[in-house]
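Morning, I've got a small favour to ask if you have a moment. It would help a lot if you went through both lines with me. Thanks so much in advance, here it is.

***
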Amino acid sequence: MYDLLKIEGRIQRLEIYDDSLSAFGKSGDAQIAASAILSGVAESVSLSAQTVFLASRSRLHVKTVVMEIAGKVCIGQFHSGLFEQNEYVICVVRRLENNFYELYSVLSPKTGLLHMQVGMGASVKAHQTSIAKGRNVWYAITIFLGSLIYFWARGFNQVDILIFLGVAILFYFILFFIIKSASKSLKHFSEKSEQIFVLYGFKDPQEVFLLPSRYLSEKDHLLLESVYEYRKIIESDPYPESYIEQKERNV
């Protein structure tokens, strides 16, 4: 478990800066290669962003957001910063020191948008299911195309069929090992995501997979990474638009 907590209140002293996010810091090359492999075989939240990292030499243009919530100074990096001064938000943060906190996610009942750190948005189970599905699809396509080319060039005979089957089995285990090793380096994204879903009180947090609800920015004509219209996925929303009025009425 990560040391995360939930805070909420109206945004004060909002500042948003253009910035760039290093994909994996000093350990970049190996993990970037891993994510490149995975981005081609699954629809995981933690993978689609990595394709952008590769295209931009492992850097993604992001927004550094600084805000004060309930007297706490919070800072974080998101693909975009669609926030407004005095907007009521529910955040998941990690305490850094004194009164400073790192933002992991920001949920707005008003806009229905959930900003999460780049790479987040799928539970552990949903992430693994997506990886397995993508791996099997990639394997099936590769074997199908490979068989067409192989048998078209060599023809059908018992020896060639046995050779091809042996290669196909070996390829499956190699692919399985590569993807499993690569996915381990990204597992912390889904672990943190699932803990965030629990803190937000989402139903069945272990099943949540937010990728299909990524927000399309009309301004940039771009699907934003880890910015979600979460109500498209979360059926029983704990934070409807009326939440703010009800919350502040009871204060």
Summary: The mean pLDDT is 82.
